[in-house]
Amino acid sequence: MSLGETGVSPATWDVTVQVPSSITVKDSGIPAESLFSAYASYTSSDPNKRYASIFIYNARVRWNGTYNTVTLGSCSKTGSDGMYDRVYWAQSSAKQLSFTADPMYAGRLPTSELFNSNNPTKRTVNVRIELINFATRTGATAGTGTKSADKYSYSNNTGYIVASDVIPIVLSAYPTWDSTDPGGTYAPGELYTVNVSNLEAQYGGYITKCKLVLGNEEITNTSGGSMSVSVPTTVGQYEPYIQVTDSRGQTSTQYLSRITVRNNSVNVASASATRVDSAGKKNDSGTYAMIQATFNRLNATFLAPTVAYSTVGSSSRTSVSGTWYTSWSATGGFSNAVSNWASLANGTTLYFKASGTYDKTVTYMFYITPKGTATEGDTLTGATYGAYLSQEFFLIAGRK
C-alpha cells in the first residue's frame, strides 16, 4: 500500500505488515507482539527531506470470518526528545522503519477463544491481522543540518486497514489422565489390569479413544476405567502403555513399568464346597464345611493355600483356619493331612476342613488363594477362586 504525500515535494510511503507462517499455542495465549510486525519505507526526491517517522495507532486480529475481533493495541517508534523516532538519510535513497506490537498496550489472544466446544474437532484456526490505521510524518531540513520537526514544515498522511496474510494458529494441548502402574511378575496368559481415571481433553475437545497395549494384546474404549489384557505367553519382559486420542487427533502415550513373564505359576483349576458334620462326614444338615479344590502348578512347588469366607452380599472377608487333606469320603470324612507341600504333583486334588460353624440359613462364599515357590526363588500367589456353600444347596439336598 502506498500513500502520496501532500507537502513541500512529492514523496511515497510503502507500508506492509508481516506475520509468522504459523503459531503453535498451548495454554498461555498468544502475546500480541508475536503476531505481526509493520514495515514502512519512504522515498523522496527532495534533498531537503531529511527524516521521516511513523506511528501505528492500533491493529486487530480476526478469526472465524469477521465474527471475532480482538484489538491488539498500539505500537510506535519514539525518539529521545519525545518526538517520533526519525530516520535520516542522504538525498533520495529509501529508508525503512519497522515496528512490532507494544506489549504495554496489547494483551494476549486467548487460547480458549480460538479453541472451545464450538469447534471440538479443529486443531488449526486461521486468523487475520489487520493494521487498521497509522500516520506517517516527514520533516524538512535546511542544507545538511538536522532540525526538529516542529521548526520546519512536515506533512501527515493517514492510512486505514492494511491487511496481512492469514496466520494458522495450531493448538498443542494434549489429553491428560491418571492411571495405576502395577508392574510385577506374571505367569503366561495371566490378566494384567490397570485403572485409567480423570480422562480429559483440552479446550472443548472430547476423548475418542483410550487404549491399553501389552505385547500384541490391546483393549480400547472411550472412558478408561478398569482395563485388562492377557499377558503374553512367551517368557520375557514387556512394556505396557496407555494411548489416549482426543477429537482433534492429538494423541498422548504413557509408558508403564515393565513386567516380567515367567513360566512359573500356581492356580486353582476347580473348587466346590459341601456341608459336613463335626466328624467331617457329608451331612446336608451339617454346620461345618469341606472345601474341595484341584491345584495346578508350572515350574513351581506348592505352598499351603489360604482360605477366607464372606456372606453373600457382603464384601468383608474373614480368614478361615483349618487343615488340608489328600483324602476325603462322604461317609468316612478326612484322612491324610498334607505334611510335604513340595511333593504334591500338578493336578492334585485336596480337601480343606474349615474350622468354625456355618449357619444353615445363611449363604456363604469361600475364597481359595493358591501359593507356591518359583524355580527362581520368588513367591507366587495365584488368583482367588470362590466356591459357594449356600442355603439353597442344603434345602435342595434335604428334599431328596
Write the layout of secondary structure elements.
Blueprint: E1 2-4, E2 11-18, E3 23-25, E4 30-31, E5 37-44, E6 49-63, E7 68-76, E8 87-88, E9 95-100, E10 108-109, H1 111-114, E11 124-140, E12 154-171, E13 176-179, E14 185-186, E15 191-200, E16 207-214, E17 217-221, E18 225-230, E19 236-238, E20 241-246, E21 251-255, E22 259-261, E23 265-276, E24 288-298, E25 300-311, E26 318-320, E27 322-329, E28 333-337, E29 348-354, E30 364-374, E31 379-381, E32 385-389, H2 391-398
Parallel strand pairs: 3-12, 14-22
Antiparallel strand pairs: 1-2, 2-5, 4-10, 5-9, 6-7, 6-8, 6-11, 11-12, 13-15, 15-18, 16-17, 16-20, 19-22, 20-21, 23-24, 24-29, 25-26, 25-30, 27-28, 27-29, 30-31, 30-32
Please characterize this protein's 3D structure.
The longest helix is centred in the last third of the chain and has 8 residues, at 391-398. Strands 3, 6, 7, 8, 11 and 12 form a six-stranded mixed β-sheet that branches. Strands 23-24-29-27-28 form a five-stranded antiparallel β-sheet, with no helix packed on it. The chain is built from two helices and 32 strands. It is 3% helix and 56% strand. The radius of gyration is 41 Å and the shape is elongated. 29% of the residues are buried. With 400 residues, the protein is an all-beta fold.
Keywords:
32 strands, mainly beta, elongated, about 55% strand, 6-stranded mixed beta sheet, about 400 residues, disordered C terminus
Proportion of residues in helical segments: under 10%
Structural class: mainly beta
| Largest sheet descriptor | 6 strands, mixed
Whole-angstrom Rg: 41 Å
User: Low-confidence parts lasting 5 or more residues at pLDDT below 50?
Assistant: 1-10, 76-95, 141-156, 396-400
Average pLDDT across residues? 77
The tally of helices reads: 2
Number of strands: 32
Distance between the termini: 104 Å
In quaternary terms, these chains amount to single chain
Overall geometry: elongated
How much of the sequence lies in strands comes to over 45%
